Amino acid sequence: MTSYARITGTGSYLPPRRLTNNDLAAELAQRGIETSDEWIVERTGIRARHFAAPDVGSSDLALEASRQAIEAAGITAQDIDLIIVATSTPDMVFPSTAAILQNKLGITNGCPVFDVQAVCSGFVYALTVADAMIRAGTARRALVVGAEVFSRILNFNDRTTCVLFGDGAGAVVLEASEEPGILASDLHADGSHVGILCVPGHVSGGEILGSPLLTMDGQAVFKLAVGVLDKAARATLDKAGLTEADIDWLIPHQANIRIMQSTARKLKLSMDKVVVTVDQHGNTSAASIPLALDHAVRNGQVKKGQHVLLEGVGGGFTWGAVLLKM
Ligand code: ACO
Fold first, then answer.
1. Are residues 30 and 144 in the same domain?
2. SS (HEC) of the chain
3. pLDDT tens, 35-81?
4. Is 46 touching ligand 1 by the criterion CB < 6 Å?
5. Active site residue 283
6. Among 136, 158, 177, residue at a domain's last position
7. Among the options 111, 120, 162, 198, which is catalytic?
8. What's the mean pLDDT when you consider all of the chain?
9. Which of 99, 108, 194, 262 could share a disulfide with 95, CB 3.0–4.6 Å?
10. In a mutational test of the pocket of ligand 1, which residue from 43, 47, 257, 263 has the highest number of ligand atoms less than 8 Å from its CB?
11. Which atom of ligand 1 is the closest one to the Cα of 314?
12. Is the CB of 163 under 6 A from ligand 1?
């Protein structure tokens, strides 16, 4: 048994193909779909996103991010004894992207591996599970990854959704520690909202039944998101005996700058304390929080000893928050 699970290394990876809003607008114009940099920036804060090459899968992006996190933690891949990958765009129906990642990392120690599917809340779900397993003594060094190739499930004839998402991966190494790390978390779901954000297809008899492309009621998602995020943040702080004033950094799921501003306002946090990467990455679903965390660690914003609140919201409908000390 151990007292805490603590993040000891972070990493991230974006595929090299970067499209600004103008680049995407020019591509969409060829299909007769009209959009503009002005519309996208004003409604979402997004300025650019990265798209993976057709032969690159979530496990490939996860591999690059994981290598960085493992190096930053000062360990080797063989030291990892648990892999959890949060993704809604797995390489295959099965086996898990975590199993494929284990093999690509060359890990031969037989450690348990599995995927978590909670869409954009996937990383806070995965981190909470890894924290519980470490504190229970089931693992000592977990690799927790969010990796997505959302470009594969976008309908490029639907301008209300295809401008919002991008591809990428982020990873952390979470280790058993006597020093405080993850302090509290708070996870939720409401399955009655399945239809407002989904990819409603499935494989059956060698065919795809239903649509394999993302569909979203943007306004319904927006309303639900701004209604739950500050509550999850407060519940997490309460569990740790802390208040909003103790937060050094808020790292929200990077979907839309207006949702982040609304949550920050409700928590009485200045936007100076919010890590924002949505402008450069778009919404990378389960990858967005670990991508933003790694960005903030590497550029010196997030420092050792600071309190960081991560919060995610997404399809399911799922939402949750994790409070940690770096
Ligand atoms: N370019 C130009 N015009 C557009 C575009 C576009 N890309 N998309 C929509 N429009 C038009 C619409 O057709 C509409 O035109 P009309 O008034 O002539 O009918 C107008 O813009 C307004 O459309 P709305 O849908 O009302 O725009 P809204 O202000 O609601 O913004 C948005 C849409 C950005 C999707 C917003 O609702 C939102 O951000 N919702 C949350 C989405 C989100 O965060 N999703 C991710 C959740 S996480 C996960 O699990 C994946």
1. yes
2. CCCEEEEEEEEEECCCCEEEHHHHHHHHHCCCCCCCHHHHHHHHCCCEEECCCCCCCHHHHHHHHHHHHHHHHCCCHHHCCEEEEECCCCCCCCCCHHHHHHHHCCCCCCCCEEEECCHHHHHHHHHHHHHHHHHCCCCCEEEEEEEEEHHHHCCCCCHHHHCCECEEEEEEEEEEECCCCEEEEEEEECHHHHHHEECCCEEECCEEECCCCCEECHHHHHHHHHHHHHHHHHHHHHHHCCCHHHCCEEEECCCCHHHHHHHHHHCCCCHHHECCCHHHHCECHHHHHHHHHHHHHHCCCCCCCCEEEEEEEECCCEEEEEEEEC
3. 999 999 999 999 999 999 999 999 999 999 999 999 999 999 999 99
4. no
5. yes
6. 177
7. 120
8. 97
9. 99
10. 43
11. 50
12. yes
Judge if 172 and 276 occupy the same domain. no
- pLDDT for position 1: 66
CA–CA dist 104, 2 (Å, integer)? 30
The residue from 128, 149, 177 where one domain ends is 177
> What mean pLDDT comes out for the span 11-15?
98
CA dist 51 → 32, 94, 119, 198 (Å): 21, 23, 18, 20
Residues 6+ apart with CB under 8 A from 267: 230, 233, 234, 244, 247, 250
> What CATH number corresponds to the domain at position 300?
3.40.47.10
Q: Which of 197, 222, 313 to mutate to test the pocket of ligand 1 (most atoms within 8 A of CB)?
A: 222
156 lies in the same domain as 90: yes
In the residue annotation, 120 being an active-site residue is answered as: yes
